[in-house]
Amino acid sequence: MTVLPTDRFTHEFVDFIPADLDAGVLYVSLPYATVMHLCACGCATKVASALDPTDYAITFDGETISLSPSIGNWNFHCRSHYVIRRGQVRWMPAMSDADIAAGRHCDRRAKTARDELFDAPTPPRVTPENDTTPVGGHGHIRQRVTVAIKGLIATIRGR
Ligand SMILES: [Zn+2]
Question: For the region Disordered, what residue ranges are annotated (predicted)?
């Protein structure tokens, strides 16, 4: 059986996302703030989009649904990339690994600091104890000059 790509999505507002999804239907669950559909390429992979200020948003104009930003299924074998605008699928260029990494980086920055902890090491916080930046105090400078002079004397004596 040949599965054709989907170029148009209808929509269904549901409370619960059904287990079996029809191709070409966006299932919108407001209670769960989730949109599910089968990948538009026809690979039958279920694509879940969380509706969240830092994730996906839908626009319902009374007839059709738009979903933004683009759907990038780079975790799937097909690596499909498309936008759904007013129910129409607009195919986008496939992303390179570098684009994907950059995109993920942006996503990560948009998300909470807690999520960030799982993905990237957080730079250590600068506290007064470990702050090595010079502070404009006379005591500091005098101490540094003394250390420098002592070092110089040691060098001269060492010759
Ligand atoms: Zn696909």
Answer: 118-138
